Inverse folding.
């Protein structure tokens, strides 16, 4: 929730210079549902509050971004159930929405994608190649268990299949960490780096 507060402040800052700026999609990895619940519920409530204030002031309404949680294990139904339970524990069950169950609210707030590939913490060659190439081109390191697997699936499967739906849209990929997952794949990534990069490692003692 605090992370969403910070994001909303950043969006407000951008809109001071770009009045028509809107965030269209928010994407992140999920492995237990905790982060996914906080971000998706937080965004839903934040935009509901923002639009209520805008309506009172006669200002333009801002539709919330589509939220995509890329599951790196289990299946979407597992995450919807898990996130509903977490949301209830956060107090969502006490909101005045008598005609909507918590799970219905969650399913409206976020789309969970089945992005685990071969399985939790199991990487394909294509995923590892993607992580390496992404690091070389952007300087941003993704881990193979969470963020790397999630961004690979979103770009290759969701955007790849969606085509024009994602063209010219503002997409935020939320890097949630997980660098410790790099250790197990270190040797494989180093071998790929030796082939793909002209930069050679020097062991200096």
């Amino acid at each position: 929730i605090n992370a969403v507060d910070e994001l909303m402040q950043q969006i407000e800052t951008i809109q001071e210079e770009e009045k028509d700026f809107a965030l269209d999609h928010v994407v992140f990895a999920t492995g237990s549902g905790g982060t996914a619940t906080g971000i998706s519920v937080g965004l839903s409530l934040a935009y509901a509050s923002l639009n209520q204030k805008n309506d009172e002031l006669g200002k333009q309404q801002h539709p919330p971004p589509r939220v995509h949680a890329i599951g790196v294990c289990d299946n979407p139904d597992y995450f919807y159930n898990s996130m509903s339970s977490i949301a209830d524990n956060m107090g969502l069950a006490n909101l005045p929405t008598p005609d909507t169950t918590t799970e219905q609210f969650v399913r409206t707030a976020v789309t969970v994608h089945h992005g685990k590939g071969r399985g939790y913490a199991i990487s394909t060659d294509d995923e590892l190649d993607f992580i390496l190439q992404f690091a070389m081109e952007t300087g941003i390191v993704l881990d193979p268990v969470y963020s790397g697997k999630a961004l690979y699936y979103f770009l290759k499967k969701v955007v790849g299949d969606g085509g024009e739906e994602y063209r010219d849209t503002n997409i935020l990929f939320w890097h949630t960490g997980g660098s410790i997952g790099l250790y197990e794949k270190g040797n494989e990534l180093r071998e790929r780096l030796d082939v793909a990069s002209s930069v050679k490692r020097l062991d200096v003692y």
Observations:
- The longest strand covers residues 25-30.
- Helices lie at 2-17, 34-57, 76-90, 102-109, 125-138, 147-162, 186-196.
- Strands lie at 25-30, 66-71, 111-114, 171-173.
- The chain has a mean pLDDT of 91.
